TrEMBL record:
It comes from Malurus cyaneus samueli. One of its GO terms (molecular function) is ATPase-coupled intramembrane lipid transporter activity. One of its GO terms (cellular component) is recycling endosome. Its EC number is 7.6.2.1. The keyword Transmembrane applies. This is Phospholipid-transporting ATPase. The active site is at residue 372. PANTHER family: PHOSPHOLIPID-TRANSPORTING ATPASE IH, PROBABLE PHOSPHOLIPID-TRANSPORTING ATPASE. It is a multi-pass membrane protein. CDD domains: P-type_ATPase_APLT_Dnf-like (cd02073).
Length: 1141
């Protein structure tokens, strides 16, 4: 509605309707720019090849892509229509009316019932609950399953029916639509009886987001504020920046090279054609006289036409269908991750997720891993350990004389219990922890009256988005103080005497990652006003004016060294006048429409001063299962692991030692604010650089394992403040020098810990490494919303499906249930993906060179007349039908080495690092191999076969044969599927050739291949020639493989050779190290289930007694009977090598 007369000028704004459109509008959005080269090459001009022959492969590529994306688009249209047509209840003229969701407009008042989703972004006006609150789950938005509390506007929460709501007269001012789910700035002006309006601030706690679900509330009324594509959910639809893998970049570079080869071949043939025709009678033979217009035609125009004709003739060297095959390989290959049962977590019921399949092979190229600590390396399952109040330590459930004392009433572990003022501080500390939080109490029934006798301390279920807060409230409950609930803006707690204390909640100063603290202002039943604050020690201690600071600080530092998460608690008492001033400051900042966050931060800074320190808490966050094993394996694979966390340095360092990122012999180097205060940043960086280069010289750690014993291991610790100084841009340009020195120090450290990091600083670190001169491939892994920025910044982003919601998993490229699954994802899946797709790319270029180079040679024998060597059907179907399926299946199923070996020997990851299989040396080798095979086939057929027996068109069989046999030669992992596809494709080619040449097809004007194939197959010399030529063409590659394996074997080839030699002599349980050292003895065994498929499987006796596993191995191995723990994950598995238990 328009405001009444006298109000400020009102300019009507155009708002969108409530339709959601997630489908792609551009009709040609499926045509990739990468294929523009092929589009240019397939110009249809007057050439010997028909337009169908030239255009069909490209049409096939575009059609397949269009069908795939068109189908996905149709599904999006279908989903959009279902959402846009669902019914919504809204108020019109005081009555409840139903209409479709798409017809909602900004300003409509909507009623939403329990378990319904909000149809658009709503300002919360009133609720069926008396206190004007409602509970909402935002699982579909950010993945958080916990119920959040939202609050109605103070002046409208009393309106409970349609007539009262319809009589409301108000205007709302708010910011323009923006995608941040947790930020909203607005103001509502409520008009009463045409008097001056009452202004109330609107924040994120008043905004109900589209897609969220109403819970435990009968109904609510809200006014539509953002609709359709302006809702926060729709604004988050916008796709992330496109990430491209190193393989894709190499493909495009190789494509440019082949484009240059194509142009060169066309240019050479055009020049040689006119050189050839310069001789008398060659330009115009007696059987092909030119017409008069042809003689008068411009020479340069004729040469250009010939050049284009040669381009079309040779354009098959460009593997058009490679892009479709690569897309299919990535899409189908991604299912191997989601199907992996070892990466399924039974505790959470979650498995791995693949949000994009474009980066599968990038998992095999990772050089840096940036990981969060809390919830990623640790379980994020907080357990209250102790609290320290003015130097006295309280531990719940203390063991005393062999018995656990549950619900201890504060057991002092240092000296005598406090008395007098100390007792008062103790009670204030417990009250502070019961009041200073955002925890909700889950109530099973909605009974308004709660009697003291009905309450059991054990019956409370606490819900919060922060596990720390739940742990603290539960820990204080075990020490005698229980938080009951928040009702009618009053917080109720149960003290040790089982009396309910009520505190009026006046203000909440919310937690944020910059302040690193939160506060509440409450009023007790006696009228006293308290400000309770809890936060990180670095943000509390500078604001404390009194209290036993030294004792508390010492306890905090001791707990931090042990890896515990610490928080400090402080308070101050406010007079009525002081609170009045505070309220005015807060109200002024909250009503601001511009820079509200900044103004609130300034007000918080003024209010949160002059505290009295009460004490500190310690919460334990256990390390995740196999986190240390995973980090150790990644380091052995040559991957550098950095931990980026917001925790304090001592806590983070203790966790790094526990997870083996730092070792006992690691020398720690500090680049912290404390160091910089003692020396200048320039001097600190100079000293650190001098230290790390003293032993290493000019070498960098990039060529060494992080676990090298030949060099001193260094670990660097840097905090957020120091990083800000390094990244800060100065007028003299010296910051870039700081960055270079910092990077040089980091490169020579085996591990780096970044603590006290803000979310944006995490992304800055990732970007700094990503854009360094080596351009390493980076991976970021985290579980919370604060990790999203670094996940989006890294080449590959992985989200852990943890307890901090699913924001990280939703914004990542891949999601895994636990950190330990990263080991298999990189070392096995990443390794396989990279090897497979690299072979796929090289094979496509190889087979196209092998196929089309004879066409180039043939021009020297036909007077450069652009005569085709192959029949048009074979030109069209070569890439589409004959050769695509075998290489696709090979790239999906090939295992050059077993998965268990890859897990057991992480160093094999280095064999494929830095794009090793797509380097120029390998690419040139494959290209020359294709040229060699083409020359062998062309001249071999020319010299060996008599034209009276086999026509030149009969040569078409040889390039197909060599491709199939070359693929068979390179296959390590044979299954019936490989045999069926490779030999089935060869059989399909033969059958097709028999049908194509053996039948007179009525729709063809002429048949070049009629009876040619049958004639050739009936010739003995032809069969002998084919066998001989295939043998000669395969010989160089076989010799190269044999010589390289014997003289310069890679680690992978050594293991392949060892597996072949030892196949009959070793057990699946034999550790790989014994293959390298005959004296090696191991007590490690595997508890992995064995499979049986051959008659030579070894028998192993495996049993358990008193919690220890024993194995009795055959004496042929030279083992003595030893015991081992079944969790030690060693077993050897070669192709076809299996053991029964």
């Amino acid at each position: 509605r328009e405001p009444p007369p006298g109000a400020e000028a009102y300019i009507p704004q155009r708002f969108p309707d409530n339709r959601i459109v997630s489908s792609k509008v551009p009709i040609f959005s499926f045509i990739h720019l990468d294929k523009s080269a092929e589009v240019i090459l397939c110009l249809i001009i007057d050439t010997p090849t028909s337009p169908v022959t030239s255009g069909l492969p490209l049409l096939f590529v575009i059609t397949v892509t269009a069908i795939k994306q068109g189908y996905e688009d149709w599904l999006r249209h279908k989903a959009d229509n279902a959402i846009n047509h669902c019914p919504v209840h809204f108020i019109q003229h005081g009555k409840l009316v139903r209409k479709q969701s798409r017809k909602l407009r900004v300003g409509d008042i909507v009623m939403v019932k329990e378990d319904e989703k909000f149809p658009c972004d709503l300002i919360f006006l009133s609720s069926s609950r008396g206190d004007g609150t409602c509970f909402v789950t935002t699982t579909s938005l950010d993945g958080e399953s916990s119920q959040k509390t939202y609050y109605a506007v103070q002046d409208t929460k009393a309106f409970h029916n349609e007539q009262e709501i319809d009589a409301l007269h108000a205007t709302i001012e708010c910011e323009q639509p923006q995608p941040d789910l947790y930020k909203f700035v607005g103001r509502i002006n409520v008009y009463h009886d045409r008097n001056e309006p009452i202004a109330r601030p609107l924040g994120s706690e008043n905004l109900l987001l589209r897609g969220a679900t109403l819970k435990n509330t009968e109904k609510i009324f809200g006014v539509a504020i953002y609709t359709g594509m302006e809702t926060k959910m729709a604004l988050n639809y916008q796709s992330k920046s496109q990430k491209r893998s190193a393989v894709e970049k190499s493909m495009n570079v190789f494509l440019v090279v082949y484009l240059c080869i194509l142009v060169s071949k066309a240019l050479i043939n055009t020049i040689l054609k006119y050189v050839w025709q310069s001789e008398p009678f060659r330009d115009e033979p007696w059987y092909n006289q030119k017409t008069e217009p042809e003689r008068k035609r411009n020479l340069f125009l004729q040469a250009f036409t010939d050049f284009l004709a040669f381009m079309v003739l040779f354009n098959y060297i460009i593997p058009v269908s490679m892009y479709v095959t690569v897309e299919m390989q990535k899409f189908l290959g991604s299912y191997f991750i989601t199907w992996d049962e070892e990466m399924f977590d039974e505790d959470t019921g979650e498995g791995p997720l693949v949000n994009t399949s474009d980066l599968n092979e990038e998992l095999g190229q990772i050089e840096y891993v940036f990981t969060d600590k809390t919830g990623t390396l640790t379980e994020n399952n907080m357990e209250f350990v102790e609290c320290c109040i003015e130097g006295h330590v309280y531990v719940p459930d203390v063991i005393c004389n062999g018995q656990v004392l549950h619900d201890g009433t504060g057991i002092d572990m240092i000296d005598s219990s406090p008395g007098g003022s100390g007792k008062e501080r103790e009670e204030l500390f417990f009250r502070a922890l019961c009041l200073c939080h955002t925890v909700q109490v889950k109530d099973d029934d909605s009974v308004d009256g709660l009697k003291k006798n009905d309450f059991s301390r054990k019956s409370c279920i606490y819900i919060s988005s922060s596990p720390d807060e739940v742990a603290l409230v539960e820990g204080i409950q075990r020490l005698g103080y229980t938080y009951l609930r928040l009702k009618d803006n009053h917080m109720e707690i149960l003290n040790r005497e089982n009396n309910i204390e009520k505190f009026e909640l006046l203000e909440v100063l919310s937690f944020d990652s910059v302040r690193r603290r939160m506060s509440v202002i409450v009023k007790s039943s006696t009228g006293d006003i308290f400000l309770f604050c809890k936060g990180a020690d670095s943000s509390i201690f500078p604001r404390v004016k009194e209290g036993k600071i030294d004792q508390v600080r010492a306890r905090v530092e001791r707990n931090a060294v042990e890896g515990l998460r610490t928080l400090c608690v402080a308070y101050k008492k406010l007079t009525a006048e002081e609170y009045s001033n505070v309220q005015k400051l807060l109200q002024s900042a909250k009503l601001a429409l511009q820079d509200r966050d900044k103004k609130l931060a300034e007000v918080y800074e003024k209010i949160e001063t002059d505290f009295i320190l009460l004490g500190a808490t310690a919460v334990e966050d256990r390390l995740q299962e196999k986190a240390a094993d995973t980090i150790e394996a990644l380091q052995k694979a040559g991957i550098k692991v950095w931990v980026l966390t917001g925790d304090k340095m001592e806590t983070a360092a203790a966790t790094c030692y526990a997870c083996k990122l730092f070792r006992r012999n690691t020398q720690l180097l500090e680049l912290t604010t404390k160091k910089i205060e003692e020396q200048s940043l320039h001097d600190v960086l100079f000293d650190l650089r001098k230290t790390v280069l003293r032993d290493n010289g000019s070498l960098t750690r990039d060529t060494f394992s992080g676990l090298s014993t030949d060099m001193q291991d260094y670990g660097l610790i840097i905090d957020g403040a120091a990083l800000s100084l390094i990244m800060k841009t100065r007028q003299d340009g010296s910051s870039s020098n700081y960055r270079d020195r910092f990077l040089e120090i980091c490169r020579n450290c085996s591990a780096v810990l970044c603590c006290r990091m803000a979310p944006l600083q995490k992304a800055q670190i990732v970007k700094l490494i990503k854009l360094s001169k080596e351009h390493p491939i980076t991976l970021a892994i985290g579980d919370g919303a604060n990790d999203v920025s670094m996940i989006l910044e890294a080449h590959v982003g992985i989200g852990v499906i943890g307890k901090e919601g699913r924001q990280a998993a939703r914004n990542s490229d891949y999601a895994i249930p636990k950190f330990k699954h990263l080991k298999k994802m990189l070392l096995v899946h990443g390794h396989f993906y990279y090897v497979r797709i690299s072979e796929l790319v090289q094979y496509f270029f190889y087979k196209n060179v092998c196929f089309i180079f004879p066409q180039f040679l043939y021009q020297f024998f036909c007077g450069f007349s652009q005569q085709t060597l192959y029949d048009t059907a074979y030109l069209t179907l070569y890439n589409i039908c004959f050769t695509s399926l075998p290489i696709l299946l090979y790239s999906l199923m090939e295992q050059h080495i077993s998965a268990e070996t890859l897990k057991r020997e992480p160093s094999l990851y280095r064999d494929v690092a830095k794009n090793a299989l797509l380097r120029w040396r390998v690419f040139i080798y494959w290209t020359f191999l294709g040229v060699f095979d083409a020359v062998v086939f062309f001249f071999g057929a020319y010299l060996l076969l008599d034209n009276t027996v086999v026509t030149s068109n009969g040569q078409v069989i040889t390039p197909y044969n060599i491709f199939f046999f070359q693929l068979a030669l390179d296959t390590h992992y044979w299954t019936w599927i490989n045999h069926f596809v490779i030999w089935g494709s060869l059989l399909f080619y033969i059958v097709f050739s028999l049908l194509w040449g053996g039948i007179i097809w009525p729709f063809l004007n002429y048949q070049r291949m009629y009876y040619v194939f049958m004639q050739m197959l009936s010739s003995g010399p032809a069969w002998l020639g084919i066998i001989l030529l295939i043998t000669v063409s395969l010989l160089p590659d076989v010799l190269k493989k044999v010589l390289c394996r014997q003289l310069w074997p890679t680690a992978t080839e050594r293991i392949q050779n060892a597996s072949r030699h030892c196949r009959e002599h070793i057990s699946e349980f034999t550790p790989l190290a014994c293959l390298k050292s005959p004296r090696y003895r191991s007590s490690d065994c595997s508890n992995s289930p064995a499979r049986r498929s051959n008659s030579h499987s070894k028998k192993v006796m495996f049993t358990q007694w008193k919690g220890v596993d024993y194995s009795v191995l055959p004496s042929v191995f030279g083992y003595s009977n030893k015991h081992c723990r079944s969790s030690a994950g060693y077993h050897y598995s070669g192709s076809g090598l299996e053991t029964s238990i």
